[in-house]
Amino acid sequence: MANTSASRLAQIILAGGREPDDLVQEVIDDALASSEGSAALFRDLVEPLADRFEFRLVNAYVSIFSRVIEAALPELDASKLVERFMRIRRPRKFAENALAVKDVYVLSRITIGADIAITSRILRAAFTNFPKAQVHFVGPKKNWELFEPELALELIEIPYKRTGTLRERLGVYPELAKQLSKKGALIIDPDSRLSQLGLLPLGEEENYYFFESRSWWADEEMPLGEMTERWVTQTFGVPVSMPIVAVEDRLEGFDVTISFGIGENPEKAMPAPFESRLLQLLVDRGLTVLVDTGAGGDEAERVHRAIAEVQPSESGSVTPYYGSFKEFATEINASSLYMGYDSAGGHAACALGVPSLLLFRGYPNERFMIRWIPWGDGELEVLDAEEMSVDEAIDRIQEAIEAVFSDEPFADEESDLDDDFNEDVDDEDLDDEDDDEDADAPRR
Q: What's the pTM value of the predicted model, to 2 decimals?
């Protein structure tokens, strides 16, 4: 972690200390003064507090970021933001007449993977529980396109720069508040970046339903997809079991689809020459491979370098993919195996029922890894690659490839998780569909 005011504050909080007032003010001043200070606020403080999925750290975030918002948007009072957050975080059931609801606004999580894993389940529940309502997806158009063909959603496009400055990110608030001001409308917030994780006041509070994914059921080791299903059932009384990814039907495709996407976290990637060796392994096996080049930049350069190092074989091939994620999801659906790091592709593959092999690295704790494991119908093998060498990872992947492209079972029928990182987790903790406690309020 870089030596910034934000990183120093994070270190104190993560070590169990209380946030010093003067250091909090320094973080705020730095974030408002420069793009570097703004980037540090989110990279070195907000994300480390959120990614550990701990109740104490959520409270620390609320205390600090309410002051950040007040400094950037003086019309909002930090103490009132905290009071409102403490009210909306309380679990409650929808007890009104569902048929009388005319509009439901569902906020995007902004990242495609999170929208597949979490938001799409909420969208499905909204359509089921409020049959006479117009359901609105609030967020990026490219995310809406993944769901609209199946659900006929209305889009309220709110541009949000994931790497924007603090002022740019909070700058969407006036338009967002205006769009969501319709009297009587329900707003469902799945811990969205648009609301700065529930802190920005939107709509009518009595009609605001907030899924605080960072701290609910903190004592249970379950993926976010499963947590969302439980929250939806408890809140709206609607059993939801499948995420949504709308793709074109195609009978033939590449044998393997791959994404080497790592978001903004280079720690997620295996060291070189893993990616070129993986491609060579697949080509030597005689498989056709499609590799997503992502949004360009460093990811595309890594893909092109890896492809350039692959020696041709008689029947295997590697093809770079350029295009939208929605089109890539169609390619995933037509393939026999998806492979990649922890990214959107894994959530799409699992939702589509495509066998997947995912490598997790660069995570802050084991709970983060378990929370972000895809939850769906697709067979899944997850490798905890944090301490794996390139040779070890290639060996494990070769075993999985042989299982998929032979008659052997791909993954253990009793668990989707790799034994290496699941050794301390009961199968019961990760398969709660028949748990009698599903109706209980979330525990923190």
A: 0.90
